[in-house]
Amino acid sequence: MARTLNAPLAGAERSRALPTVRIGPDATDRRWPAVVAVAFTLAQLVLVRPTMGLGWDESVYVSQVSGHAPAAFFSAPRARGVSLLVAPIASWSSSTSLLRICLALLSGLGLYLALRAWRGLFPARVLGAAGALFSTLWVTLFYGPQAMPNYWVAIGALAGVGCFLRARADHRDRAALWGLGASAALMAWMRPTDAVWISLPLFAVLACSRGWRRPALPLACAAGLASGAAEWIVEAHLGFGGLGARLADASGIQGGLGWNIAVLDQLRSLSGRSLCRPCTGSVPAAWMVAWWFVLPLLAAAGLAVAVRAGRTTRTLLPLACATTAGIPYLFMIGYAAPRFLLPFYALLAVPAAYALTHLVTASVRKRRPVAATLVTLGLAGHLAVQYAVLDQAVDRTVAGHRDWARTAAELRRLGVRPPCLITGHRATPIAFYAGCRSAQTHGHNANTTAEDIARTAERQPVAALTTPKEQPPRFARDWEQHRGGRLRLYVAPAPGEAARN
Question: Is the dihedral of CA 337, 338, 341, 343 positive or negative?
């Protein structure tokens, strides 16, 4: 049986009648999100190339559960969500292509479920347009099939806000309550601090509207956050000296969180750079960054339309959550990476899509073809820009990963084979490629000492990596020097050889 969602929400929606929105077995409610999710999955497989090797952060996450290489050092800001996500594949297979294909399929499924969480709140065409806007961004396509947490935080945020609105409007909607808890857990599972920032407006709405009188809603959100972050908190007490110490360490690794306007840094990263640290250079050409300004403007226009249509809360809340999701990465951090703002983009996509569909469908009949043409031309330009940047980002990334693979192959040729240890420049990803353990004596990933590395070299193969301009560490100055890609490789004498000499 179909049921209706006609309970008042809040604010302006209380002062005017809400249109009755049917929630039932309407095929169009499923069709648009499904089409978008399938297209998103196929685009990842075609444009991002499953053969693209693992990146630096990916190698850290995958190594925690991989049978291919020892676990890399796991620093304070990281959470175990990605490692658990990839465990069903990475625990028995070293195939990056298989892992990428599975992640592409999972990311498509995640997008579909997140859009379905909004059913009954907006027409199906709006949800389809929201999914299309978000999934065609180059940064979404680029990180969808990667073993990274930010896309999954975005999916959790999008699904969580939709489930929150449905559960708040209809206290009998148990599926929405469970969806809210699962979405909050997913966010906290991937990045606990991001989950807290994104959830702040949800708790604010409950506090301001006396939502605490119905404890199921705040309990579902709080329980989801707590269950997702539980492992991270326990690990903080076991390995970092407590939650406060871990947060302080995480802040230090990120350059010290505090008031720091990083808007220009984010703009500079939009040329396809995966990490902008230090973020220097000029802002990319206007055609590359125009969408970054248009998306929030469209979302604001969607809010204006929603106020007149009696859908204020369901449009304002994703805008508020997008704002809190973006605050730490736009105003509190000293560097930038495009993936940091994926939750921001996902949440803005709903009100932005509402504005676009309203522009086309609400125009006077004679003007609808003109409005549709303008929107179509704008979206075509949007796709062209996103594809151009994505293509550059993929080419640059593939080239860098191949260079790491060549260096790892050269190390194996020189006798650095498991069990082995690699230290120095780019040691973390290259060690994973070579099947070795990585270690550092300084920096954010410091987890050993020079003396420990020297002792390890007496038992197993060890190599130190430097750039051509760097001097080798003191313990490696007498080691044999080789070239490996763009790096210098200092390989320790084979275990026992020094003693024989």
Answer: negative
Clarify whether residues 347 and 407 are in a common domain: no
Are residues 139 and 339 in contact, defined by beta-carbon separation less than 8 angstroms?
Answer: yes
Residue with tokens 């200092």: 490
The verdict on residue 254 lying in a domain is yes
Question: pTM score, two decimals?
Answer: 0.92
Is there a single domain that holds both residue 351 and residue 422?
no
Interhelix angle for 81-90 vs 174-190, to 10°?
Answer: 90
- Which residue type is seen at 9? L
Q: How far is CA 230 from the centre of its chain?
A: 20
The 10s digit of each residue's pLDDT in 386-404 is: 999 999 999 999 999 999 9
Q: pLDDT by residue (tens digit) across 405-435?
A: 999 999 999 999 999 999 999 999 999 999 9
Asked if residues 449 and 411 have their Cβ atoms less than 8 Å apart, the reply is no
Greatest Cα-to-Cα distance within the chain, rounded to the nearest angstrom: 91
Residues 119 and 204 in one domain: yes
Q: What is the number of alpha carbons within 13 Å of residue 432 lying toward its C-beta?
A: 26
- The answer to whether residue 377 is domain-embedded is no
Provide the residue range defining the domain that includes 210.
3-362
The beta strand positions in 231-317, using DSSP E, are none
Same domain, 306 and 448: no
